[in-house]
Amino acid sequence: MLRVKVDLEPFGMTINGKQLAEIRIWNSTGKGLTSKHNYEYELIEPNPLVGPAIIRRGSITGYNRDQPVVNLVSKVLQEALDNP
């Protein structure tokens, strides 16, 4: 599983820092010899400035895992923004 955390560290200090969001991405295909896999994700923003917590779930199908990991994270973010 990939876990991406977004932390706020005031003035670059970890003291009084807080987590703003977290993205979890996992392979839902299982093991396989092909480079194309399906991934599920969960995006959590526990304390947005306005409104209740934001939790988005979804999936990315047929992703070529030979690509850089940041491409998968980017794809998840785009998918989550396009499907609120």
Structural summary, described in words:
- With 84 residues, this protein is an alpha+beta fold.
- The protein has one domain.
- It is 17% helix and 45% strand.
- The protein is built from 1 helix and 4 strands, in the order ββββα.
- It has one helix at 69-82; strands spanning 2-8, 18-27, 36-45, 54-64.
- It has a 4-stranded antiparallel sheet, covered by helices on one side.
- A hairpin with an 8-residue loop joins β3 (36-45) and β4.
- The two termini are 23 Å apart.
- The mean pLDDT is 90.
Task: Name a few traits of the molecule.
alpha+beta, 4-stranded antiparallel sheet, 84 residues, elongated, 45% strand, 4 strands
Provide a compact summary of the structure.
The protein contains 1 helix and 4 strands.
Percentage of β-strand residues:
over 45%
Quantity of strands, as a count: 4
> Which structural class do you get from the secondary structure elements?
alpha+beta
Helical fraction equals: 10-25%
What's the layout of helices and strands?
Layout: E1 2-8, E2 18-27, E3 36-45, E4 54-64, H1 69-82
Antiparallel strand pairs: 1-2, 2-3, 3-4
